Amino acid sequence: MAKKVASFVAYDPFRADQMALSDTDAEILRFEQICRQNRMKVTYQRLEIFRQLTSTTEHPDAETIYNRVRKKIPSISLDTVYRTLRLFEAKGLIVRVGAIGDSARYDATVDSHHHFLCTRCGAIIDTRCKGLDRTSAEDLACDCGQVEAVYIELRGICNTCLAKARKHRQASGTARR
């Protein structure tokens, strides 16, 4: 019996019969390549967990990922999700974000960026700031050890919460007149 082998055709923008790859599809292809490079099996469970991470910008925690994946794979366990997330983090596929003491949240965007944590609603938002991007591990001298990576978290009130507060103030001001 012949073994089925998945094949991928590169996207050609000049061929009308091909559709452009979505960002999620491109991330899935990257995921499959990294798995092959690291001799990791590309299982349906791993693929769905990674798909959940790449399809959102909200930085979900393990239980949120578990609840979403469970809709497609009812037999998946929370332990499998946790073990898979730890494996993905160890292989550099995802990064763990969030404050110490909070539940771990995960991000499939591993290129250089920082996070803005809203102190009001708890949102974690990817941000790129040129001034912060100039700070590199090589530039930092630290007397506590060798710096290998720099992750900067900005804290404050997000634009959504600020807009809600403005709207609330305007509504309160109008009601008083």
> What's the tally of helices?
6
For the largest beta sheet, what order do the strands appear in spatially? 4-3-5
How many runs of DSSP E, i.e. beta strands?
5
Shape: globular
What order do the helices and strands come in, and which of them pair?
Layout: H1 23-37, H2 44-54, H3 62-72, H4 78-90, E1 95-97, E2 105-107, E3 114-118, E4 124-127, H5 130-133, E5 153-156, H6 159-176
Parallel strand pairs: 3-5
Antiparallel strand pairs: 1-2, 3-4
Quick structural overview:
The protein folds into 2 domains: 92 residues, Winged helix-like DNA-binding domain superfamily/Winged helix DNA-binding domain (Arc Repressor Mutant, subunit A); 66 residues, Ferric-uptake regulator, C-terminal dimerisarion domain (Dna Ligase, domain 1, 2-Layer Sandwich). It is 41% helix and 11% strand.
Walkthrough of the structure:
The protein has 177 residues and is an alpha+beta fold. The chain folds into two domains: 19-110, Arc Repressor Mutant, subunit A, CATH 1.10.10.10; 112-177, Ferric-uptake regulator, C-terminal dimerisarion domain (Dna Ligase, domain 1, 2-Layer Sandwich), CATH 3.30.1490.190. It is built from six helices and five strands. It has helices at 23-37, 44-54, 62-72, 78-90, 130-133, 159-176, and strands at 95-97, 105-107, 114-118, 124-127, 153-156. A three-stranded mixed beta sheet has the order 4-3-5, with no helix packed on it. A two-stranded antiparallel sheet has the order 1-2. Strand 3 and strand 4 (124-127) form a beta hairpin. Helix 1 (23-37) crosses helix 2, helix 2 (44-54) crosses helix 3 (62-72) and helix 3 (62-72) packs across helix 4. The longest helix has 18 residues, at 159-176. 14% of the residues are buried. Mean pLDDT is 78; it is low at 1-19.
